[in-house]
Amino acid sequence: MVTLFFCLAIGLVLASILKLVSARYTNDHALNRLEWGYPVLEAGVEEAMTHLHDDFSPTANGWTAGTLNGVSV
Predict the structure, then answer these.
(1) For the range 1-5, what are the long-range contacts, defined as Cβ-Cβ under 8 Å and sequence gap of 24 or more?
(2) How far apart are the C-alpha atoms of 63 and 60, rounded to whole Å?
(3) What is the pTM of this model?
(4) CA 45 – CA 42 distance, rounded (Å)
(5) 62: phi > 0 → left, psi -120 to 50 → alpha, else beta; which?
(6) pLDDT tens digit string along 10-46?
C-alpha cells in the first residue's frame, strides 16, 4: 500500500512538472512569434510615413488609377 501511494505521489509530481513545462513552452513560442513580426511592422509604418511626408500626389511613385468592381480607385 505504501509503495502504491509513493508511486502515485511521484506520478502527480511528474505530471505537474510536465504541465508546467508545456505551458511555458507554449507561452514562450507565442511571444517569439509576436517578436518576429515587429521588424515587418516597423518597416511598414516607416514606409507609410515616408510616403505621407514625401509624396505630393498618388502618381508620384508611378502608381496609376485602377478599377475595382467598376469603381475607379
Answers:
(1) none
(2) 7
(3) 0.42
(4) 5
(5) left
(6) 999 999 999 988 888 877 777 777 778 888 889 999 9
Q: What 8-state DSSP symbol labels residue 71? A: E
> Cell numbers 508545456 correspond to what residue?
22
Block residue for cell numbers 517569439: 32
List helix spans (H) across the chain.
2-54
Integer Cα distance of 53 and 58 in angstroms: 12
DSSP 66: -
> What residue type is assigned to position 52 of the chain?
L
Cell of 56: 505630393
Q: Which residue has the cell 505504501?
A: 2
